[in-house]
Write a structure and sequence with these properties.
The complex is a heterodimer. Chain A is α/β, with parallel strands linked by helices. In chain A, 68% of the residues lie in helices and 7% in strands. Chain A has 19 helices and six strands. In chain A, a hairpin with a 2-residue loop joins strand 5 and strand 6. Chain B is globular and about 50 Å long. Chain B has a domain of 69 residues. In chain B, the strands form two sheets. A six-stranded mixed β-sheet of chain B has the order 6-7-8-3-9-10, sandwiched between helices. Chain B has a four-stranded antiparallel β-sheet with strand order 2-1-4-5, with helices on one face. Classes of the chains: A alpha/beta, B alpha/beta. The complex binds adenosine-5'-diphosphate (ADP) and magnesium ion.
Chain lengths: 425, 253
C-alpha cells in the first residue's frame, strides 16, 4: 500500500504538468468567456427598433403602433410608402417591419378581419437576434386584444369581453410516474433537454481526455525508455497498472468537476442573456411538482456513472497505450475507443432509446458507454434502478479489461507488442 | 567458485526469431562479467531476462538460489537494472526522481535517505540534482541513472551498454565508478559492443554472437587462446570460425 501511494504520487506529478492540463484549462476558460459574452450581448438595454409602415392612417391602425410601443419596442413610424422601398432605404442591418395596409380600418368597420404584415430581414440565425420577433408578436397580440375589446364594446355590449376574446381556454397537464402538474409536454421536454444538453458534451470530453491521458503516459514511458526500468522495480505489475489508473481517474474527475463549473457559468450566461430567468424559475417549480429534479444524490449517481465510464475507458486505453511506440501514435491508437464513445454520444442525443425499436435499443444499451449518457435522463425520470444497472454493467466490462491490462503488463508483451501500422498495408 | 548468478541453457525466441539460443554463464560475488558482441547478438535480450522483464522461452536463471521467473518479487529486490539508452522523467527534478526510486525499494526513512546520499555521491552531480531532468545532457543523465542503479546496493547490477554514446571523459568516469563499486562487493553483468573498453572494465568476458556464447574467459585468457593482441581480434577470429562452420555445413549438405 505504501509503494502504491508512492506510485500514485509519481503518476499524479507526471499528469499535473502544464502541458497536460493546458488544453482543458483553455476549454474551461473558453466556456466561461462565452457565457459572459452571451450574457453581455443579451444585457444591452437598448430597445429593439421596429419600423411601422402605416398605409391606412386610421384610429384602428394607430392601435398597432401604440401596442408595439407598449411592449417596449422603439417604433419608427413611416407613412404611405411601399414596404420594399422602406426596406431598401433602411437596409442597414437586420430589421423588423410591420405594415398596416390601406383599408385596415375600413375592413374592421365592415366587420371583416383585417391583416397586418410582419417582415423580418434576417442577416443571421442567432438565438439572441430573434428576440425582437417575439416582442413584435406580443405587441400584436396586445393590439388584437384591444381591437377586439373595442369591437365587442360596439357590437355586443352585453357579452363579457373576455368570453368573446377567448371562449376556450386550454389547461395542459403532464403526468410522470404518479405525479401530475399543469404544464405542457413541450415545456417539460424543452426544459429537461435544455438542462441536460451540455452533460453529454462534458461526458464525451472527459472520457476521451482520460483515455488520451493514460495512453500518453504509457507511450511516454516507452518513448523515454523509463518503462523497462519501472518494470524491473520490486512492484507488482497490478499495482503499477492500478496506480496509473487511479491517478488518471482522479485527474479526470477533477477535470469533470472543472468542466461542470465552466458549463454552469456558460448556461447562466445563456439564461440571463436570453432573458428567460423568470421563465426558468417558474418552470423549476413545475418540475419540482413533477418530481423532475436532480437531487444531490442524483448528481452523485451521475458522477458515479461517469466515474465507471472513466475507469472503463482507462482500462481500455492503457491496453491500447501498450501498443504505442511513441506519443505520436497515441492519437491513432485511441481512435477505436473514440468511435465506441461517439455512437452513444450521438445516438442518445438524437433518439429516445425508450421508444426505439427493441433491436436498436438493446444494441445501443450493450455499448457500456451508453449508460453515463442516459444516466441524467433516467435520473430525471426517477429510474434509479436503470442507472445502477448501467453502473454495474460498466464495472463488469472494466473488470474484464483491467484483468487483460494486468495480463499484458505482466507478460513480455508490454515490451514486445507493437503495431506497425505501415507494414500492414 | 560459488556463483551469485547462474544461467543455464537459456533460450529466447520472438515468434520465429531465435534471439538467444541456449547460453550458460556464471557470475561470482563482486565479479564484473561482460557480454560482448555486435548489435543484434542477443545481449539486451539476455539482460532483460536476468532483469525479470522478459520470460525465458527455455532454460533457467538463478540469483542467489532464487529462480528469476518463479521468485521474481525477491529477485527484483536484489537486482538493479540500467536499460540501454534509458531515459528519465523529464518533468521531475533529479533529486525527486532518486527519492521516488528509493521509496519504491525501501519503507524506512533512513534507508531512503542513505540510498539518496549514495546516489548523490556516485553521480557527482552536486547542485545540479535540484534541476529538472529535462535539462540534463546525455552524460549527466547516464551518470544519474547509474547512480540510481547502484544506490539500492543491489547484489547484482545489470548494465546494458553503460557507456554507449558517451564522450571519452564521461565514459571513463562511468567505468571508474563501476570498478569501484565492484571492489566493494557488488556483482555486475554488463553488455557492450565496445570490445576495447571491456578489456579494462571486466573480470571475465563472454563473447556472444547470433545468440550463442562463442567463448568465455578473462581478457588475457581469450587473447592467449586465440593468439590475438586485443579482444577485437579475438572476436574477428571467432566470427571467422563461425563463417567457416557455416560454410562447412553448407558443403556437407
Ligand atoms: N521485441 C522484439 N521483437 C522481435 N525481435 C526482437 C525484439 N527484440 C529484439 N529482437 C531481435 O532479437 C535479436 C537480438 O536482439 P538484442 O538482444 O537486442 O541484441 P543486442 O542487444 O545484442 O544488440 C535481434 O535480431 C533483434 O532484432
Ligand atoms: Mg542491445
Amino acid at each position: 500500500m505504501r509503494t502504491f501511494m508512492v506510485l500514485v504520487r509519481k503518476e499524479l506529478g507526471e499528469l499535473l504538468t502544464l502541458q497536460m492540463l493546458a488544453p482543458f484549462i483553455a476549454i474551461i476558460f473558453v466556456f466561461m468567456a462565452l457565457g459572459n459574452v452571451i450574457s453581455a450581448a443579451g444585457d444591452t438595454d437598448e430597445p429593439t427598433r421596429v419600423v411601422v409602415v402605416d398605409n391606412d392612417g386610421t384610429a384602428e391602425s394607430a392601435v398597432i403602433g401604440a401596442s408595439l410601443e407598449a411592449v417596449g419596442l422603439t417604433v419608427v413610424p413611416v407613412q404611405d410608402e411601399d414596404l420594399d422601398a422602406v426596406v431598401t432605404r433602411e437596409a442597414d442591418s437586420a430589421g423588423l417591419y410591420v405594415v398596416v395596409p390601406e383599408g385596415f380600418g375600413a375592413s374592421l368597420e365592415r366587420g371583416e378581419p383585417a391583416m397586418v404584415q410582419v417582415r423580418t430581414v434576417m442577416t443571421g440565425f442567432s438565438f439572441l437576434g430573434m428576440r425582437g420577433g417575439a416582442e413584435v408578436q406580443n405587441g400584436l397580440a396586445a393590439a388584437n386584444q384591444s381591437i377586439a375589446t373595442a369591437i365587442a364594446a360596439r357590437h355586443a355590449p352585453d357579452v363579457p369581453v373576455a368570453l368573446l376574446q377567448q371562449p376556450l381556454t386550454v389547461e395542459n397537464q403532464v403526468t410522470i410516474g404518479e405525479r401530475t402538474a399543469a404544464t405542457s409536454a413541450e415545456a417539460v421536454a424543452g426544459f429537461v433537454s435544455q438542462q441536460t444538453t451540455l452533460i453529454p458534451i462534458v461526458l464525451f470530453i472527459v472520457i476521451v481526455f482520460a483515455a488520451q491521458m493514460i495512453a500518453t503516459t504509457i507511450a511516454t514511458e516507452k518513448e523515454n525508455k523509463t518503462l523497462e526500468t519501472l518494470l524491473s522495480y520490486p512492484i507488482s505489475r497490478t499495482s503499477l497498472v492500478t496506480a496509473k489508473m487511479v491517478a488518471a481517474g482522479l485527474v479526470s474527475l477533477l477535470s469533470a468537476g472543472a468542466y461542470m463549473i465552466g458549463m454552469r457559468q456558460y448556461m447562466a450566461g445563456m439564461m440571463s442573456g436570453v432573458g428567460e430567468q423568470s421563465a426558468t424559475d417558474a418552470m423549476s417549480g413545475v418540475m419540482a411538482e413533477l418530481g423532475l429534479t436532480l437531487t444531490t444524490a442524483d448528481y452523485a449517481m451521475l458522477g458515479l456513472s461517469l466515474f465507471a465510464g472513466i475507469l472503463l475507458a482507462l482500462s481500455i486505453a492503457i491496453i491500447l497505450g501498450a501498443f504505442a511506440e511513441s506519443v505520436k501514435a497515441v492519437g491513432a491508437l485511441i481512435t477505436p475507443l473514440m468511435m465506441t464513445l461517439m455512437v452513444p454520444y450521438l445516438l442518445t442525443m438524437f433518439i429516445d432509446l425508450n421508444s426505439a425499436s427493441p433491436l436498436l435499443k438493446w444494441a445501443v444499451l450493450a455499448i457500456p458507454f451508453t449508460h453515463p449518457f442516459t444516466a441524467a435522463q433516467n435520473l430525471f425520470l426517477g429510474n434509479e434502478g436503470v442507472v445502477w444497472a448501467g453502473i454495474a454493467y460498466q464495472l463488469v466490462w472494466f473488470a474484464g479489461f483491467a484483468l487483460i491490462a494486468a495480463k499484458v503488463f505482466s507478460s513480455d508483451r508490454i515490451l514486445t507488442m507493437k503495431l506497425d501500422l505501415r507494414r500492414k498495408r | 567458485m560459488s556463483s551469485l548468478l547462474a544461467v543455464r541453457e537459456l533460450r529466447k525466441s520472438y515468434g520465429h526469431l531465435d534471439a538467444v539460443k541456449g547460453i550458460d554463464f556464471d557470475i561470482a560475488p563482486g565479479e564484473i562479467y561482460a557480454l560482448i558482441g555486435p548489435n543484434g547478438a542477443g545481449k539486451t535480450t539476455t539482460l532483460r531476462m536476468v532483469a525479470t522483464i522478459l520470460k525465458p522461452t527455455a532454460g533457467t536463471i538463478t540469483l542467489d538460489g532464487h529462480d528469476v521467473v518463479r521468485d521474481a518479487a525477491q529477485v527484483r529486490r536484489m537486482i538493479s537494472y540500467l536499460p540501454e539508452e534509458a531515459g528519465a522523467y523529464k518533468n521531475m527534478k533529479a533529486i525527486d526522481y532518486l527519492t521516488f526510486v528509493a521509496q519504491v525499494f525501501f519503507a524506512e526513512r533512513d534507508r531512503v535517505e542513505r540510498a539518496v546520499s549514495v546516489a548523490r555521491q556516485v553521480s557527482g552531480l552536486g547542485e545540479r540534482l535540484n534541476d529538472k531532468l529535462g535539462s540534463y545532457s546525455k552524460g549527466m543523465t547516464r551518470k544519474l541513472l547509474l547512480a540510481r542503479t547502484v544506490m539500492t546496493e543491489p547484489k547484482l547490477a545489470i548494465l546494458d551498454e553503460p557507456t554507449s554514446g558517451l564522450d571519452v571523459l564521461n565514459a571513463l568516469e562511468i567505468r571508474d565508478r563501476v570498478r569501484e563499486l565492484a571492489r566493494q562487493g557488488m556483482s555486475v553483468l554488463l553488455s557492450s559492443h565496445n570490445m576495447l573498453e571491456i578489456e579494462y572494465l571486466s573480470d571475465r568476458v563472454g563473447i556472444i554472437d547470433h545468440g550463442v556464447i562463442r567463448d568465455t574467459g578473462t581478457a588475457a585468457q581469450l587473447k592467449e587462446r586465440h593468439g590475438a593482441d586485443n579482444l577485437e581480434t579475438v572476436f574477428g577470429v571467432l566470427a571467422g570460425r563461425v563463417r567457416a562452420d557455416a560454410d562447412r555445413e553448407a558443403v556437407a549438405r
